[in-house]
Amino acid sequence: MDELPRVLALLWGREEPRRGPKPKFDIRAIARAGIELADAEGLPALSMARVAAELGVTTMALYRYVDSKDELLLAMLDTAYDSPPRRQPTGTWRTQLQSWARANHAAVLRHPWIVQISLSDPPLGPNTVAWMERGLLAFRDTGLGQQERLSSLLVLEVYVRGHVLLTSSLGTGIEQDYAFARGLARVVDATSFPALSAALASGSLEDDGDLSGEEFEFGLQTLLDGIGTLVAGRRRRQSPK
Q1: Is 87 exposed, middle or buried (0-12, 13-18, 19+ CB in 10 A)?
Q2: I need a surface site. Which of 22, 59, 123, 238 has the fewest CB within 10 A?
């Protein structure tokens, strides 16, 4: 079995920091210092030196815990997500997935820099793995195969992250909607863009809902409708004739 990278071993509580003076903090404390910095100033402001300064230690002291900024980001990611919501003892697969997706969305909205992290490997920290387990448990009685469960959960994860990325880039609120509608009105005409012109004329683009609220729910329910169609099809094929 391949050994876990040291930062993951620390997150899972399977390894101690490298030799040296008695540690003043642990990997989670380092991650929380990085999170506070990224929340306040954005991910570009993050550096090993800045985090060390926040903790009142030298940069070299951090290397007892993490070998690079990428490992720091991995620890921050796992800590920012925290633990997933507990699975409800009752409830359909749909209500369980709704709870999972909404909690996931809220977690990423609290720390939107999460979607800016470039991952070379899937995150394997204890919290992110727990989120995956919690999501997969929702499919337990659906009749879907393992690959279908994994793919369905991935679709929801991509939707959550993509929605937060769009929201954090464009902003939310009526003023943004009006600005977008005014901009479109300057460049489209009914002959070349009949569909967009009809949407503009309806006024829908001037009040397109709350991106982080109403619009998120619309997309979530649409995705769950699609998964529901897949579940219903599997159940029909598996039911006795």
Answers
A1: middle
A2: 22
Phi-psi region of 93 (alpha: psi -120 to 50; beta: other; left: phi over 0): alpha
Q: 49-85, pLDDT tens digit by residue?
A: 999 999 999 999 898 889 899 999 999 999 999 999 8
What's the CATH class of domain 93-173+209-238? Answer: mainly alpha
Q: Which CATH class is domain 6-81?
A: mainly alpha
What residue spans of the chain are helical by DSSP H? 6-11, 27-41, 48-55, 59-62, 69-81, 93-110, 126-137, 146-170, 174-187, 194-202, 214-238
* Cα Rg of the chain (Å, integer): 22
**Residue 192 exposed, middle or buried by CB count within 10 Å (0-12, 13-18, 19+):** exposed
Residues of the chain with CATH 1.10.357.10: 93-173+209-238
- Decide if pLDDT at 232 tops 50: yes
Q: Residue 215's pLDDT band (boundaries 50, 70, 90)? A: confident
Considering only CA atoms, which of 48, 38, 30, 210 is closest in space to residue 111? 38
CA-to-CA distance for 19 and 32, rounded, in angstroms? 23
pLDDT-derived band of residue 42, with 50, 70 and 90 as boundaries? Answer: very high
Ranges of CATH 1.10.10.60 domains, the chain? 6-81
Which pair of tokens denotes residue 11?
Answer: 């997150």
Contacts of 152 (CB under 8 A, 6+ apart): 139, 144, 227, 230
Nearest to 79 by CA among 33, 148, 44: 33
Amino acid at 63: Y
Residue 143 DSSP label: -
Which residue type sits at 12?
W
